[in-house]
Each structure stands twice: as structure tokens, then as C-alpha cells.
Specification:
There is one protein chain. With 271 residues, this protein is mostly helical. Among the domains are: 1-10 and 94-177, no CATH class; 179-271, Pectate Lyase C-like, CATH 2.160.20. The chain is built from nine helices and no strands. α5 (95-121) packs antiparallel against α6 (125-141), α5 (95-121) packs parallel to α8 (154-176) and α6 (125-141) runs antiparallel to α8 (154-176). The longest helix has 27 residues, at 95-121. The two termini are 34 Å apart. Bound molecules: iron/sulfur cluster (2 copies). One iron/sulfur cluster binds next to loops.
Length: 271
């Protein structure tokens, strides 16, 4: 499968889902959701056809959490492929199982997103083969039955992904002649980087909450796992930044002049 095809599969399609994120997940009011809610309890705004009754008012109601959330296409995969179009409401006896499967597929799809990006960035054939094997393993797991998915050793798989991503980041940082950021320097909350040249910088796993990245040069800048909530990316070109996800973009503040990689979309909340 090509990178474009895989990334398309990882794009949310709520029409084909039974509102899984709005029921399966724990969430809290302070994180921009309507109420504090336990996992497995439907949101008060989820209506009978699995749509959100306040969808058109999410911006007005300041539901930042709902607006930012992205399941990497796990919702439609679980509803349509793994449970063949069934939903948690019509089969209450398996709803708990469905939520657990959703959480595993969500993690698998997030890792698949990073693997596909990593594969497009490296030229070393040994590492590329290792990445391709992990992509195949990932795709095969989501073809299994719900019970088999629940028995899959996700922690072991995750540690293989972490190792390979660490190697890829090391290779990219060496090629760009940039230093990998150590744990002491991950806190950039509120930092003003305005118009700085951050090309090739490794900002993976950093806290960039409310940081100002407006007008920065970000070619090859690595955002893997960075927290971009309320980061200012107005008038900023991120088209060549790497390891960005739709969820990170949804949580940041951009405008119509923000340029994203071709596989990401401008959030509706920026209009
Ligand atoms: S789980 Fe994903 S596809 Fe389903 S409603 Fe939530 S965001 Fe949409
Ligand atoms: S407010 Fe709407 S989008 Fe947010 S959790 Fe509830 S039903 Fe889902």
C-alpha cells in the first residue's frame, strides 16, 4: 500500500463509525469536553444515530477536546471491518469488548502513522525492511477477530516501534547535524520562537503548549509526540515538518496562511 493510501485509511470518517470516541473514552471538562465522563459511558450530547447534537456549536461552546480529538481512523475500522457494521448499542453484551478493541486499534493506527512517515524518511534498506515488517504486522493485527486483537501483545509491539523510531530520529538528526533534545530541555511552554530558523530541529516529545512558532522556518523539524496545544502556528509553513499528526494540528492555533503537509487538513475551528 502506498503512503497516501495508508494515510487515507488513517483519516477519520465519523459517518462510518458508531461514535466510539464519544462513549469508549474517559474525558474531563477541564480538557475541553462537555462533562467529566467515565470510560464506557456515552457523552450526554451523543444522539441515537451516533451523531453529536452540538456538532455545529463545538467551536462556540469551546469544546477544544472534541475539536482536537483524532482517532487515526480507528473508529471506522472497528465499526465497519472488525465488527462488520455492528455498534455498541445494539449489542450491549459485547460493548465493553468493542471499547477495548477500539483502544488497541487506536494505538496501532497511531503507530502505523508514524511508521509510514518513518519509512518515507529513511534510505537505509535494513531499517526500511524492519519498518515494512512492522507495518505488515500492524495491518495484519487489525484483520484479526476481536478476541485475537485483545490477546495481541501491544506493549511488546510498542517497544519495537519506539526502538525503530529512536533509530530513525538518530539518523535524521545526524544527517541534519542537529542534537537530539535531552529530557531537561523538553519544556518550551509559552516560549517565543517567532520567526526563528528551526529547520531540522528535533522537537519530539517537547511541551510546546502556547509556544509561539509564528513565521518560523520548520523544514524537516521533528514534532513526534510534541504537545502543540494552543501553540501559535499562524502564518507558518509546516509543509516539510515531520511526524506531525492531525490531532496536534487540531489543538494548535493557525490561520488560512498556515501551510500543512499535504496529508493533513486545516481544522474547521481556524475559520
Ligand atoms: S472514533 Fe473516530 S471515527 Fe469515530 S466518531 Fe470518534 S473521531 Fe469519528
Ligand atoms: S460533545 Fe459531541 S463530539 Fe464531544 S464527546 Fe460529546 S458527542 Fe462527542
Amino acid at each position: 500500500m502506498t503512503k497516501e493510501k495508508v494515510l487515507k485509511k488513517l483519516t477519520i470518517d465519523c459517518e462510518k463509525c458508531c461514535g466510539l470516541c464519544c462513549v469508549a473514552l474517559y474525558f474531563s471538562k477541564s480538557d475541553g469536553f462537555p462533562t467529566d465522563k467515565a470510560a464506557g459511558k456515552p457523552c450526554v450530547n451523543l444522539i441515537s444515530d451516533f451523531r453529536c447534537s452540538i456538532h455545529s456549536k463545538l467551536i462556540e461552546c469551546k469544546m477544544k477536546g472534541c475539536l482536537a480529538y483524532d482517532c487515526f481512523g480507528a473508529g471506522q475500522m472497528v465499526t465497519q471491518s472488525i465488527y462488520h457494521g455492528s455498534d455498541w448499542k445494539s449489542m450491549p453484551e459485547t460493548s465493553e469488548q468493542m471499547y477495548k478493541v477500539f483502544l488497541i486499534v487506536w494505538q496501532l493506527h497511531q503507530m502505523l502513522w508514524y511508521l509510514v512517515e518513518a519509512s518515507s524518511l529513511v534510505f537505509d534498506s535494513d531499517i526500511k525492511n524492519d519498518i515494512d515488517a512492522l507495518i505488515t504486522e500492524n495491518e495484519n493485527v487489525t484483520k484479526l477477530s476481536p478476541d485475537e486483537i485483545l490477546n495481541f501483545d501491544i506493549d511488546k509491539y510498542k517497544s519495537k516501534i519506539n526502538n525503530i523510531l529512536r533509530n530513525v530520529i538518530k539518523l535524521i538528526s545526524n544527517a541534519n547535524n542537529t542534537k537530539i533534545i535531552d529530557k531537561k530541555t523538553v519544556n518550551f511552554i509559552g516560549k517565543n520562537f517567532k520567526k526563528q530558523n528551526l529547520d531540522g530541529r528535533d522537537l519530539s516529545m517537547t511541551l510546546l503548549i502556547a509556544a509561539n512558532l509564528e513565521g518560523c522556518s520548520l523544514n524537516g523539524t521533528n514534532f513526534l509526540g510534541a504537545d502543540l496545544r494552543d501553540a501559535n502556528i499562524k502564518n507558518t509553513n509546516l509543509s516539510k515538518s515531520i511526524f506531525l499528526t492531525q490531532g496536534q494540528i487540531n489543538s494548535a492555533i493557525g490561520n488560512k496562511n498556515t501551510i500543512l503537509p499535504s496529508y493533513l487538513s486545516l481544522p474547521i475551528s481556524w475559520n
